[in-house]
Amino acid sequence: MLLQNASITVTEFIIGGFDETKRPVLVGVVILVIYVLALVANMANIVFIIYDNRLRKPMYLLICNLAVVDILYTSSASPTMIGTLVSGIKTISYVPCYIQMFAFHLGGVMEMFALSVMAFDRLVAISFPFQYHSYLTNARTLVLACALWILACCFVAILPATVIPLPHCHLILKYTFCDYPAIMRTTCVDPSYYFGMVTIILFFLLFFTFTFICLSYLGIIYFLKLSSNNERKKIGSTCLSHLIVVSCYYLPIFVTSVLTRIGVVLTLEERHALMIGTILGPSLVNPFVYCLRTKEIKCRILKIFQKI
Description:
Blueprint: E1 12-15, H1 24-51, H2 58-87, E2 91-93, H3 94-127, H4 132-135, H5 138-156, H6 158-163, E3 172-173, H7 180-184, H8 192-225, H9 229-258, H10 268-293, H11 295-307
Parallel strand pairs: 1-3
Antiparallel strand pairs: 1-2
């Protein structure tokens, strides 16, 4: 696809983010191993939940939704990084680059939404244990998940809408794959206005979702005080899984997206490392956390291995 009315005609971009990387093949193999593990673990979670009728409950449907989000998020960027590092393929066509940008940022926004709705699910389950299954049915959970996907698409659609009309002056992407900052820096315009606009949207999403999660846990803590010791242990075990997942996602996002906007300076290598960690870390940790800490899924896995 050719970009008309631009300073240069763009048919493909060159990924330059790994040009200074030492031992690129080794780094690529490490990313490949982590990516495959994350992919297999998330797909296994989905299969376990779909296959077992006893797991077709709102909580597990939301875990399944999170696994789908993780697969999208890590698959949007990892194959490109692996190809660049291992095979030395540094070019990506114009249209696939924009598709990758949309998929990557959609995965990032949906990760926030998925974690928020899971916190809400735990709050309802703990606050109204007897009415929980009447309040959050499977049908309502699926409708809620679909609504969040549509809302996330609406937010992310702003990105290609702002960058596609702009003329390009460069072909080399400064970063490791096609995300919004990388593509925006190839245009002929001053990106400050666009980065400022996206920062406001991102801050709104981060603030809203993180605050929602925190308020949900404040409500959970309140009800914990009214519970017995056995109930506290059970509730604490369930919530700890979610808190681990929330920390793995929000911590690097907070560093790369918020602190850098208020004066914290990161080298290009540090930014790349944090970005790769943000993509691969939660996608790898999430399925293992829920497999190991969720009794029903863990029992299902043990039964399968016993049959083998």
